[in-house]
Specification:
Four Helix Bundle (Hemerythrin (Met), subunit A); eight-stranded parallel β-sheet; binds flavin mononucleotide; alpha/beta; 15 helices; 2 domains; 46% helix; TIM Barrel
């Protein structure tokens, strides 16, 4: 039987960020969150190097594969692949506004085609037993209304998808870069709450601009879950605070305990051909806001870029982590 997924808190799918190394690192900080891959185009998932593109470590679970596509056959095939590989969920991207993604007809431009979205989702649901979920925006271009969004959400739900992640800002499909599309359209949380309120049977996850546990608690009064992207990527130890304040876990690891486990992971991965920087680049923010943050960042940028891995330099990460730990204990 499939275990019910806890989506109270999840880390957002982020291209070039939430790869398997980042997910391993985040899982060391929190056992309770749900994790998502970066968006993977259906064609890459089907024809690419599967181990490289879709492979993951069991420790990352529960884990969802986020897919980008609008070809029913391809989506169906990716669902079967994801289920076979042990993913816990498959999520369709209906929110990415980038030009390239629009050209390939996936992401946010699919908000204009609710019938096609509905057919894709039903095909996906018929192809696997793992949950199929959708991540979308609250509108696009000039459209940001309860009626449009509600009818889009209903299409998705009638196709069988009962978990919908709503990024609480619309997408501007022409004229804004993807980065601007994460900043310029205004956040509209009340619209997301209204959708949840009118669709009590759906699991509605809210996303966009959430940066602290007070906000999380507030959103959880109105929605079923909260998804956070940049605030965790930039300050990964925020997850330890989430473990403590949201999941009431009193046994969260310290930053140096996490660093110690990472060093072990780096050594194992290097033996398999991974470069140290492919892992450590994700940890630049581990000491965000702490004494020693600059020392940590500088050490990583000065020593972790080399192609050849020097274990002495890798081991020295622990000395920096322990010194930082001491410096922060003294000042607290
Ligand atoms: C670098 C970066 C890459 C992103 N890549 C994806 C992606 O692959 N799939 C997706 O659905 N959203 C993607 N997003 C959007 C995030 O999932 C999320 O919706 C957005 O950042 C808003 O949440 P936040 O304010 O908590 O960061 C990306 C965002 C960033 C910053």
């Amino acid at each position: 039987m499939l275990k019910k997924i806890n989506r109270k808190i999840s880390v957002a799918p982020m291209m070039d960020c939430t790869d398997r190394h980042e997910r391993y690192f985040l899982r060391l900080l929190s056992k309770n969150i749900m994790l998502y891959t970066e968006m993977i185009a259906t064609k890459s998932a089907i024809h690419g190097d599967r181990k490289k593109i879709l492979g993951f470590n069991q420790i990352e679970k529960p884990l969802a594969l986020q897919v980008g596509g609008s070809d029913k056959k391809e989506l169906s095939e990716v669902c079967k692949i994801a289920e076979g590989m042990g993913y816990d969920e498959i999520n369709i991207n209906l929110g990415c506004p980038s030009k390239k993604v629009q050209k390939n007809k996936f992401g946010a431009c699919l908000m204009k085609e609710p019938d096609l979205v509905s057919e894709c989702i039903s095909e996906m649901i018929n192809s696997c037993k793992i949950p199929v979920t959708a991540k979308t925006r609250i509108g696009f271009d000039d459209i940001e209304s309860f009626d449009y969004l509600n009818s889009f959400v209903n299409k998705i739900s009638e196709a069988g998808c009962k978990t919908i992640i709503l990024h609480a800002r619309k997408a501007i499909l022409k004229g804004l870069t993807p980065k601007e599309n994460l900043k310029i359209p205004k956040l509209n949380y009340p619209l997301v709450y209204e959708i949840k309120n009118k669709n009590k049977n759906l699991e509605i996850i809210i996303n966009g601009g959430i940066t602290n546990t007070e906000q999380i608690k507030e959103h959880l009064k109105n929605c079923d879950g909260v998804m956070i992207g940049r605030a965790i990527y930039q300050n990964p130890y925020f997850l330890a605070e989430i473990e403590n304040k949201i999941f009431h876990n009193t046994n969260v690891p310290s930053r140096s305990e996490v660093a110690e486990k990472l060093v072990e992971y780096v050594k194992e991965e290097v033996k398999k051909g991974t470069r140290v920087n492919q892992i450590m680049r994700h940890t630049v923010g581990l000491y965000h806001g702490q004494n020693g943050a600059n020392k940590w960042k500088r050490y990583l940028s000065d020593n972790m870029m080399a192609r050849d891995s020097d274990f002495q330099k890798v081991n020295h990460i622990m000395t920096i982590a322990q010194n930082n730990e001491k410096a922060n204990q003294v000042s607290s």
